[in-house]
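Help! Submission page says 'invalid entity' but I think these are all valid:
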Amino acid sequence: MEKNYTLDCYGLLCPMPVIKIAQMIKKIKKGEVLELISTDEGVKEDIPAWCRATGNEFLGIEEEKGIFKVYIKKMKD
Amino acid sequence: MDKTTLIVFSDDLDKVLAAFNIATGSASMGMEVTMFFTFWGLNVIRKDKPSKRSSNWMKRLLGMMNLGGADRLKLSKFHMMGIGTGMMRALMKKSNMPSVKEMISLSKELGVKMVACTTTMEIMGIHKEDLIPEVDMIAGVATYLENAKESKVNLFI
């Protein structure tokens, strides 16, 4: 999937991916796509929940050999 | 803005970590977070050494047994004179989990407000100077309730 930034959360457990994504989203522009790489299966539910709570768009998730790539679009500045 | 309010009553390492997990998570969800530290929970936000000796012998005695500092917290079970807690700390480090001290600075970065309870400070002989600089204010039950009645998430830990 097309992306503007990648956030590497390899090996990090909850709540770290959500914290990192909240910090990163402040640094990027509206409409840009952020890719999160995580080994924590919790992100499958947590990132969509985070997107719903913060009003950002969850674009999808790719899973390969225990590594999750999650895509988010920033919806507001 | 949605609010989360947490009372941290316990100084058990596991419970305190759960509290910080919810606090940092809430802040990351865009919520306004306040943590109230009371009773044993004050130990989490105390400096490692007290600033001065208390004038009351019972407070002095309590101070000798009830040591403060985020690095001193024990597990609620399997502490085993420090062996269990040490192993848990090692396991957490291996899983890249932040320590309580790291959780405190992370919380501050995310804008979590930390409040110390005046009543328990007075009872236990803990002075303002004994608290870590990350503490935003000292206050009482009215401040907690003002926050709590507007909070969607309100927990006693």
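Support: the input was valid. A stray whitespace character was the problem, and the output above is from the cleaned input. Chain B is about 40% helix and 15% strand.
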